[in-house]
Amino acid sequence: MLEEGKNAPDFKLKDQNGSTISLSDYKGSNVVLYFYPKDDTSGCTAEACNFRDDFSQFKNLNAVILGVSPDSADSHKKFAGKYNLQFSLLSDEKKEILEKYGVWKEKSMYGRKYMGVERTTFVINGDGKIKKIFRKVKVPGHNKELIEAIES
Q1: Which residue in the list 8, 23, 31, 44 is annotated as catalytic?
Q2: Active-site residue 49, yes or no?
Q3: Is 112 helix (H, G, I), strand (E, B) or coil?
Q4: Could you give the domains of the chain?
Q5: Following DSSP, what letter does each residue of 122-152 receive, concatenated?
Q6: Rounded Cα gap, residues 131 and 149, in angstroms
Q7: What is the pLDDT of residues 24-82, one digit of tens each?
Q8: What are the pLDDT digits (tens) for 82-130?
């Protein structure tokens, strides 16, 4: 289980444009690494659009936003294009990073159990250490929490 103050696991994943992105590419920057269940669903769209709308505030805090889900790079490309998202969406179809970060969990809906992404955000400082973990994220107001965490 990852904890605040520990090193964030590095990774290499493809983004919506086919570029390989790794956490270590952003040494010296704050990283908002958010894990979400699925492109173009109501909660995930609201979350991504909130990041889009507050993008300049994050940029002013030297923060990079990286979204991760098990969707394909093609799915991410359509999603980013549809909502004019200016940050990287990373594809983890093999669920290796989802598991490494402990967000691939058994979930339950209407009595049915299944595996899925627990909406979670990690704030990682410029030294690659986990500054703050937000588990079971509720989308409304989450950006404000993140901005406060980066500023503190």
Answers
A1: 44
A2: no
A3: strand
A4: 12-151 (3.40.30.10)
A5: EEE-TTSBEEEEE-S--STTHHHHHHHHHH-
A6: 8
A7: 999 999 999 999 999 999 999 999 999 999 999 999 999 999 999 999 999 999 999 99
A8: 999 999 999 999 999 999 999 999 988 898 999 999 999 999 999 999 9
